[in-house]
Amino acid sequence: MKVEFYSSDNAVTETVITYIKDEIMKLHKQYNNISRADISFKQKKRQTGSEKMCEISLFIAGSSVDAKGICKSFDHASKKAIALLNENVQASFRQKVHDL
Question: pLDDT, tens digit, for every residue of 56-99?
């Protein structure tokens, strides 16, 4: 499986990167049809402060499953994205099994 990270600056800590890698590897072990993971980090300036965003796309057997977390830190945004990703991957596999 190929895992790629994208960020416009170096504001993302190694701890966040390691957390995401570990969680994606858990998913890969559970659902071994995952071929690629793209993770991007973005920061948007707002009048009330800045928002940090973590977007994750998993490519699974010809389709993709996406999740996005937005929070005041990349740490919390990545945790939200991973939680949503787990839900979306489970729903995707349930739907594929149901369609059989």
Answer: 999 987 789 999 999 999 999 999 999 999 999 988 877 765 56
Tokens representing 34 are 């995952």
- Which residues, 6 or more positions from 63, have their beta carbon under 8 angstroms from its beta carbon? 92
How is residue 40 written in tokens? 């991007």
Q: Please, what's the b/e burial string for 67-77 (b: 16 or more CB within 10 A of its CB; e: otherwise)?
A: bbbebeebbeb
Classified as helix, coil or strand, 9 is coil
Q: Dihedral of CA 16/18/21/23: which sign?
A: negative
Query: Which residues, listed in sequence order, are joined to residue 64 by a DSSP beta bridge?
Result: 59
